[in-house]
Each structure stands twice: as structure tokens, then as C-alpha cells.
Amino acid sequence: MNSPRSLSLVPALLLSLFAIALFSGPARAAIPPQARQALHAAHRLMDEKQFTEAVKLLREYMDTAQGNVDAEVYLVLGGALHQSGKKTEALAAFKTGHTAHPDNQYLCLNTGVVLYELERHAEAGGFFEKAHSLQEKPAPDLLFQAGSAYYLGEDFQAAARVLTSLLNQEAKPRKQWVQLTIHALIEAKRPAQAEAMVLRFLNDHPDEGEYWKVLARLHLDREEYAKASAALEIAHSLAAPTRQEVERLANLYAYQGAPLLAAATLTRTYGQNPTPEEAIKVAALLASAGRTAQAVTLLEHHRSNPTAALEAGKALYRHRKFEAAEAAFRRILESADNPEARFFIALCAWEKREWERASREFRRLAGLESHRRRAAPYLVVLEDMLAVRAEIDGIDAKRTR
């Protein structure tokens, strides 16, 4: 099971764009008169959708400003550039402003927003994380946004760190937060923490079948096959599994040496009237568990299918029921020539120590390109054996004269 990178859990950008409202009170009073005048004019132009003119006005002010440019100027400049569709220039404005005013939460936040929009997610995560640290009041959504951005940027270690921190701070974390944390921990190769988080999640949401599958995957990674099987059974009981999922579970049971359980798992999905291909899969499991008669009976329902009929004969052969096996192979030849059936007829003769008949059958197969190599070793042995027998028979004949 490959871990699903559940991008559906990553939220759309939840942050409001942009924080460019005019400051008031002491912060507003600290803005120089020329800056206030430029900002007022720029806001009026932006209200009229004249973003290019607003950008030009602010840049002219910045070129003539003495001393540090106020944070709000960078905010409004970046906002005007963004609204005119110039996201790269908006990013540059916010970044420059953030460098000049590193403690301004709005410049930090807006830098992250534009980076996120430009799909520079891991970088955005860093700015969201810092913006969270600059908040006066707790802002868990912002911290989740930081973890989500790191995740999208495939910085899974950072995503796991931030999201785990978020969950540790919240007594009742949201379901989506826990889900994304699980996937971040898996991608960060921290399986023990991921399993603990999955169990915590399933304790609160036991009907979430997908996360029973996630738990199964974690068990499989540690080769805990019985635990993985149990988790998958729970998942399948909560929602109808796909055919592929059922077959994967059956393979897991077979790998654990439980072929009958594997066969029962497939039968639950295939039903009482499986297709020939399905019957062959179930029969192979039954035969490997020693249920030869049951396997053959299942395949006999599809004797008109050459592959199923051949598998029925092979099942009998493997369990040393050579007479019944040969009869099954000969029935196949009644409808059409089948070199594989002939090969097993030769093998049955070999097992029954009917050397001359076996030799005839293998010689016939030696003339076929598809079976020449398989028949050759048997023919070498048979020819030597028959030659020795002929020599012994000759000696015996001389003695009796």
C-alpha cells in the first residue's frame, strides 16, 4: 500500500487577502504626513480600480521618502500590484516590506499568501508559521495553513512538526487537522507516531474506513500481517471494498499460510457463480490447502473453458491422483488439441511408470517448438532407461535358450 498523499485534506487558502486596512490611533499617528497623503490618494485610486496609477503614485512617494518607508505603504503597494495581476511584483513588495518590518504580521502573512498562490508552498509555510507567532491571540487555523503549505511543498518534516504542535495545543482538534497530521507523519517516515495518531483518530472516529486501511498499511510496513489483515477486515466491513482490495486481502491471507481464509475472502466477493478466471483463483487456494476435490468440483463447473479444465487436471496431478488427472486431460483433447494437456498426460504416464507410453508421448511433444525443451530431459532419461531395459531383456532371453 502506497501511502495516499491526501491533498484533498489540504484546505483552500483560508486567509483573507489582503491586510491593507488603514491603521488608526497611535499607529496611524506615527505615519509621516507625506506618507498619509500618498496612502489616502492610493486608496482612492484603488477604490476606482486604477491600480496601475496607485502603484505609480506610491513608488514616486517611496523614491522621495526620507528614512524608512512605513509598513502600510508596502502593504498597499503590494495589494495594488496583486489586484492588477502582477503577483511576482506584489511578492517583491511584500518581501521587501517584511525585511524592513520583520515584526509586522500583515506583511509576513501577505508574503505567505502570494507565495502560496504562486505554488511556492514550502516557502509560504515558513511565512505562515512566522505570521502565527506574531499573532496577539491564538490563531490555530493559521498554524494549520502553515502545516498544509509545508505538506503541499513536500517538506514533510516541517509539516509533521507544525501539525503535531497544533494538535498538542488544541484539546479538541478538528478532524481534518488530525487526518493531515497522520499523512504528514507517514510521509516524514515517522511510522510509530503515525500509528499512535491513527489509533487516536480511530478511537474518536471508528467508522472511518479509509483510516483502518492506513493503519493496515503501517502494519504491513512492519510485516505485521495478522494485524494488517484485521484492520483491512474492519475497513471492508464499513464500506464495500473494490475487487482489487479484496484480492489484496486474500493475497495477504495466502502469504500468511491461510489459503482457506484467502479462498473464503474471494468467495465472499465472487459469489456462488464465479467466472472461469475467478474460479481458477479460488481453486488454486483450495488445492494448496489440500482441498483437491473441492477445487476440482469448482473448476468442473467451467469445464468448457480450456484454462479451467486444464487447471482441474493439474490440481489432480499435483495431489498424485494420476488416473483422474489423465482422464481430465484427455477430455480436453476431445474438443481440441492442447499441447499442455498432452504434456501432463506424458507426466501421468511417467508417474505411473509406464515408460514406453511416456516415451511415445514425450517424443510427440519434442516435435513441438513450444514444448521441445520441457520434453527433452525426460526423453534423455527414458531413452537411457529403455536402452538398459532392452539390454537386460536380451541377456535374459539368451539365458532362457
From TrEMBL:
Keyword annotations for this protein? Repeat, Signal, TPR repeat
Which SMART domains does the UniProt record give? Answer: TPR (SM00028)
Pfam families found in the cross-reference section: TPR_16, TPR_19
* Annotated signal sequence range: 1-29
- InterPro entries per the UniProt record, alphabetical: CellSynth/LPSAsmb/PSIAsmb, TPR-like_helical_dom_sf, TPR_rpt
The organism sits in which domain of life? Bacteria
Known SUPFAM superfamilies for this protein? TPR-like
TPR repeat ranges per the UniProt record: 71-104
Q: What is this protein called?
A: Tetratricopeptide repeat protein
Q: Name its species.
A: Pseudodesulfovibrio alkaliphilus
